[in-house]
Design a protein that fits this description.
Blueprint (H helix, E strand, L loop, with lengths): L2 H8 L1 H9 L4 E2 H11 L8 H13 L3 E8 L2 E8 L1 H26 L2 H4 L1
Antiparallel strand pairs: 1-3, 2-3
């Protein structure tokens, strides 16, 4: 697995929770929004997206609701209060990680070039 794939895999929960903070979405919509908002960087295939959604649902971070839209049944995912708490925790952790990474990269002459 490439470093880029490892980074994206390690941030899967965080980016999904971040997206769902605004409103419930169905799976395909989540994948499209992730790709669109990140200019394709967070393109997520079904093989990663749906297992992640199911795992987060089992942990109590997401709730689901079936809705009929344009003659189709779609499963919508929404953040629970526990999911919001987890998002807050992960946001703090990612901010700390990015600050330390910036400090490390800024201190390295290799990255200054």
């Amino acid at each position: 697995m490439s470093p880029r794939d490892q980074i994206r895999k390690g941030s899967t929960d965080f980016v999904i929770l971040s997206l769902l903070v605004n409103r419930p979405m169905y799976g395909y919509e989540i994948s499209q929004q992730l790709a669109r908002r990140s200019a394709g960087y967070f393109e997520m295939k079904e093989g990663l997206l749906y297992p992640s959604l199911h795992r987060m649902q089992q942990k109590g971070w997401l709730s689901t609701e079936w809705r009929e839209v344009e003659g189709r049944r779609r499963k919508y995912y929404a953040l629970t209060s526990l999911g919001r708490e987890m998002l807050d925790e992960q946001t703090a952790e990612w901010k700390a990680f990015l600050e330390e990474l910036r400090a490390l990269l800024g201190a390295s002459e290799q990255w200054a070039k």
